[in-house]
Amino acid sequence: MIDTLATAHALVEAGLEQRPAEAIARAIRNGQGYAASEDFVRAEIGAVRSEIGAVRSEIGSLRSEIGVEIGSVRAEIGSLRSEIGVEIGSVWAEMGKLHADLTEQNNALLRWIMGLGFGAIAGVLAQLVVQILQQ
């Protein structure tokens, strides 16, 4: 940064009047201030860009981890679907066995009932035959 007072004196010695010399010195100093501010802003922009790069890298890393997790979850879901399929097959097989057992029990019950019915009919017929023969 320039010394505004020294610059103004130098301009007065060079033949300018005091006020214009001071105005020129201030303008030069302000211009240098703007240049310094511009350099500072550029440095800040560079730092922000660097941080953005780090954030993008972190996002990429997180996406990769999420992809691995999603793959793991999908594999687990596939495994669970397989297990459920096996269990459902097992339940269907058990239901088939129960149905067969019930059918067999129903048939046995029907045979027993019919046996009782035929036995009763045979008993009644036998009594009728005996009564007819006794007459």
Describe this structure in words.
The structure is a single chain. The model has no long low-confidence stretch (mean pLDDT 85). With 135 residues, the chain is mainly alpha-helical. It has helices at residues 4-13, 18-134. The N and C termini lie far apart (152 Å). It is built from two helices and no strands. Helix 1 (4-13) packs antiparallel against helix 2 (18-134).
Concise summary:
The protein is mainly alpha-helical and 135 residues long.
Q: What would the principal axes of the Cα set say about the shape? A: rod-shaped
Order of helices and strands, N to C? HH
Q: What is the CA-based Rg, rounded?
A: 53 Å
Structural class: mainly alpha
Largest β-sheet summary: none
Tally of DSSP β-strands: 0
Look at the structure and give the mean pLDDT.
Answer: 85
Strand content: under 5%
Number of domains: 1
Instruction: Report how far the terminal alpha carbons are from each other.
Output: 152 Å
Q: What level of helicity do the residues show?
A: over 70%
- The low-confidence runs, each spanning 5 or more residues with pLDDT under 50, are none
Number of alpha- plus pi-helical segments: 2
